[in-house]
Amino acid sequence: MFTGIIEEIGTVNSIRSGAQSMTLTIAATTVLSDVRLGDSIAVNGVCLTVKDFTINQFSADVMPETVSSTSLQQLTVGSSVNLERALAANGRFGGHFVTGHVDGVAVIREKRTVDNALYIRLSLPEVYTPYLLHKGSIALDGTSLTIFEVDQTDIMISLIPHSQEMTVLAKKNQGEIVNFECDMLAKYVENMLMKRMGTPKNASSSMTEDYLKEHGFM
Description:
This protein is mainly beta. The protein has a domain at 8-85: Beta Barrel (Elongation Factor Tu (Ef-tu), domain 3), CATH 2.40.30. The protein is 15% helix and 37% strand. It has helices spanning 64-69, 161-166, 184-197, 209-214, and strands spanning 8-17, 22-27, 40-43, 46-53, 57-62, 80-85, 104-114, 117-123, 137-140, 143-146, 149-151, 154-159, 177-182. The strands form two sheets. It has a seven-stranded antiparallel sheet. A six-stranded antiparallel β-barrel has the order 1-2-5-4-3-6. A hairpin with a 2-residue loop joins strand 3 and strand 4. The two termini are 26 Å apart. The mean pLDDT is 90.
């Protein structure tokens, strides 16, 4: 479990590619301060398992499904990546519940500066629109962010100066993709409601804002 509060930006030192998989070696400092074999580290929001490490880098295997469904497939040697260790039981919870199980990729459609904020508009696949809520939470490349505008499949988020400096999202350009993970609580609510209604899991979602209000969830 993660919080979406990025601890540091790491650098991809090497990529060893298999037929459909890959092994990443990433230079880092903060996330290695107490690392152990088998620990979970979120890399651009993707939960990966540490297979080996030194004082200044760690390696993790990436499965074929993860390669094909996330932006990790576009990494090259020298790429910057967001890093976060799994949440410790005695840690501060500063973001929102983030599992590291990425739902898919979103495309950056627009970037513009408004005073001290960086506004970024992104498009998501239509199937995820039930989870896009005004003032709701979303993780982008592992960064916990608040949605402040929803327009069908597009969302707008805003980065404060600290987030602009401490995450990779601000450095990405229009047309590039980012990993996204919708709020897990929304997905659990939808799953519960669909089971109550006997709706097949792969059917179109009927969990609208009006439906949630009608049934006392909002």
